[in-house]
């Protein structure tokens, strides 16, 4: 099982140093969250908390995850980065293809594209995109971005996007993996059909086990059971080595964690405290050898 450190809602000026430390102590990747803006009044509930409330406010720091990946990639050599997840629905696929291809090239193909639709109507409408039919539009967006990133002269004529022959150079030297987020049945089908992996929001171990089983069944239905596939998980109730063993046994391939939160620190904890937490977590889980005992 891989280990990814999430840097959600932390001070932006800590990101580069956290990436260097995460690589030094043995983490596999950094997960980068996405939020365009904070609307004072939200038209929809946040779907990943029990009461629909947002876990952040108007002063919570966010950085564009693609820009962050490029900055953190410049000071590392083995650490991977992926968006967790970038909200496609309010954006333009050609512009995103240019950005994703740039990050992939600048990081030496150490970038994975975690994608979702987006939950807030305001993010669509205020960016000039209709909220209606967002799922179908995102399906077409994924198709467009993959097509362009594959390289060469391409064209596309779909329901939502239409363009004649064009090319973006250089294309990434390797395919950019797409990790699809979401907990609904339609999101799981999207992940099984077009994704190189699935990424969760906060879930219990039991929920993860059930969801992974469903995804494997869907992958079989789509004829993709034998293809590589990542299960990236944020688990809220499996802790300690035994808990991590349970996650691995359930099929989790990438455990997304925030070590300083486990140590009772907040998102805005001092940088040195966060570095200590990264080292302590790595000693306990990454270098302890528990996986060799499986």
UniProtKB/TrEMBL annotation:
Q: Which InterPro entries match?
A: Lucif-like_OxRdtase_Rv2161c, Luciferase-like_dom, Luciferase-like_sf, SsuD_RutA_monooxygenase
Its top-level enzyme class, in one word, is: oxidoreductase
Keywords carried by this UniProt record: Flavoprotein, FMN, Monooxygenase, Oxidoreductase
Recorded hits in Gene3D superfamilies, A to Z, give: Luciferase-like domain
Which top-rank group of organisms is this from?
Answer: Bacteria
Membrane-spanning residues where?
none
Supply the EC number(s).
1.14.99.46
Record Pfam families: Bac_luciferase
Residue ranges occupied by any Luciferase-like domain in the UniProt entry: 9-231
In its UniProt record, which GO terms are filed under biological process? alkanesulfonate catabolic process
The entry's protein name is LLM class F420-dependent oxidoreductase
User: What is the species of this protein?
Assistant: Mycobacterium talmoniae
Originating gene:
rutA_1
């Amino acid at each position: 099982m891989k280990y990814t450190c999430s840097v959600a809602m932390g001070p932006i000026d800590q990101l580069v140093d956290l990436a260097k430390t995460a690589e030094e102590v043995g983490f596999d990747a950094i997960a980068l969250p996405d939020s365009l803006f904070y609307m004072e009044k939200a038209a929809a509930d946040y779907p990943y908390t029990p009461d629909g409330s947002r876990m952040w406010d108007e002063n919570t720091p966010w950085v564009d995850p693609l820009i962050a990946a490029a900055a953190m990639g410049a000071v590392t050599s083995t650490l991977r980065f992926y968006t967790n997840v970038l909200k496609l629905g309010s954006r333009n696929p050609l512009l995103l293809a240019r950005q994703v291809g740039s990050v992939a090239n600048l990081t030496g193909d150490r970038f994975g594209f975690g994608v979702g639709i987006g939950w807030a109507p305001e993010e669509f409408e205020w960016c000039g995109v209709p909220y209606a039919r967002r799922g179908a539009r995102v399906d077409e967006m994924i198709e467009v971005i993959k097509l362009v990133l594959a390289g060469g002269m391409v064209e596309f004529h779909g329901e939502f996007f239409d363009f004649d022959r064009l090319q973006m150079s250089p294309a990434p030297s390797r395919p950019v993996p797409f990790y699809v987020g979401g907990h609904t049945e339609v999101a799981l089908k999207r992940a099984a059909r077009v994704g190189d992996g699935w990424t969760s929001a906060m879930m219990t171990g039991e929920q993860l086990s059930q969801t992974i089983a469903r995804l494997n069944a869907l992958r079989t239905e789509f004829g993709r059971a034998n293809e590589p596939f990542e299960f990236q998980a944020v688990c809220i109730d499996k802790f300690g080595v035994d808990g991590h063993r349970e996650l691995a046994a359930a099929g989790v391939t990438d455990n997304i964690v925030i070590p300083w939160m486990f140590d009772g620190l907040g998102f805005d904890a001092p940088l040195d405290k966060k570095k200590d937490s990264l080292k302590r977590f790595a000693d306990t889980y990454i270098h302890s050898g528990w996986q060799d005992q499986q």
